[in-house]
Design a protein that fits this description.
343 residues; alpha/beta; Rossmann fold; 3 domains; five-stranded parallel sheet; two-stranded antiparallel sheet; 10% strand; globular; Sigma_54_int_dom_CS; DNA binding
């Protein structure tokens, strides 16, 4: 999706094989769509901070577009023609993360048959993105802090350090202040990361943006396929606007992709999106309502969604609909005390 004229704008919400013309400038940032007041402020803040060389911390719930925003800011920076290297901290085993980030010399780690550079060096001159930075082990946090302080990395097993010119952006959905309090995240690293901080609001706090994003995705599909765009019916627009979207933009993108496949042409109905235009959400069982979080909180939405769908959907399907991983689904079940349905 790189060659004009059918290339998607950088950072555009992704649908496999789809691309489109850019959205109106006042409602977008490098392909990110958002006309609500909260997102306009996020876009303005991002434009101010993008040219800076300082580290940046992007906060927000899962699926709000933290990595997409990081990519947009890289493209708006003086480093745009240099590498953008994303690292998914949660996905790398604890025994490998140090070598992956900082590199290692031959024989310094199991399986290290040759010396190799780490991802910090791979990002030379560009931007290093640490997704889920809160998941880093404490010893790796200490090495990361030293890297930020000195601009140097020392490969595992090496005797000398190497200077690396990298801008660091970190993201997390965790409460880092609480992590600092409980000792699982270094306070010095926290303050070093948040020289600049941008907080992405959840989709439920972005009035009108769910419909804007859905319609933008439909326009992108039409542009790619050189055909008249699918449209949302009045009922579908109302359903999209009213849905809580606990998985945020990621969940909405999945729903629109599903609707494009099912509707084929013409008008999209709520059913194509997996939404119900008429029936109110079922009330959870009485024993599930004890200590339930407020209905307008993410936890409240998450609890209701899981309890309503776990009898009919597998854990993998529930996680996909929410736009999260199975691991995250399991963690939230444990934290909120939501038992799995007995088969």
């Amino acid at each position: 999706l790189s060659a004009p004229p059918l290339s998607a704008p950088p950072g555009a919400p992704f649908l496999p094989g789809l691309s489109a013309p850019p959205a109106p400038a006042d409602d977008e940032l490098e392909g990110m769509v958002g006309g609500s007041a909260t997102m306009r402020e996020v876009f303005a803040q991002a434009r101010r901070v993008a040219p800076s060389e300082a580290t940046l911390l992007i906060l927000g719930e899962g699926g709000t577009g933290k990595e997409t925003l990081a990519r947009a800011m890289h493209r708006l920076s003086p480093r745009r023609h240099r590498p953008f290297v994303p690292v998914y901290c949660e996905a790398i085993p604890e025994t490998r993360i140090e070598g992956e980030l900082f590199g290692c010399e031959r024989g310094a780690l199991p399986g290290a048959h040759t010396a190799r550079a780490g991802l910090c060096e791979a990002a030379e001159g560009g931007t290093l993105l640490l997704n889920d930075v809160a998941e880093l082990p404490t010893r790796v946090q200490a090495r990361l802090l030293r890297f930020l302080q000195t601009g140097e990395v020392r490969r595992v097993g090496a005797s000398r350090a190497r200077h690396v010119d990298v801008r660091l952006i970190a993201t997390t959905h965790r409460d880092l202040v609480q992590r600092v309090r409980d000792g699982s995240f270094l306070s010095d690293l926290y303050f070093r990361l948040r020289l600049h901080e941008i907080r992405l609001p959840p989709l439920r706090q972005r009035p009108g943006d769910a419909v804007r994003i859905a319609e933008s995705l439909l326009r992108r599909h039409a542009w790619a396929m050189a055909q008249a765009p699918l449209t949302l019916s009045a009922e579908a627009r109302a359903a999209v606007a009213a849905a809580p979207w606990p998985g945020n933009v990621r969940e909405l993108e999945n729903a629109v992709h599903r609707a494009i496949v099912l509707a084929e042409r013409g008008e999209i109905a709520p059913a194509h999106l997996g939404l119900d235009a008429s029936s109110p959400p079922p009330v959870p069982p009485a024993d599930a309502l004890e200590a339930e979080p407020p209905s307008d909180s993410l936890e409240g939405y998450f609890r209701r969604f899981v309890l309503e769908h776990q009898a009919a959907l597998t854990e993998t399907e529930i996680a996909r609909r929410l736009g999260i991983s199975r691991k995250t689904l399991w963690e939230r079940r444990q934290r909120l005390g939501i038992p799995r349905a007995r088969s």
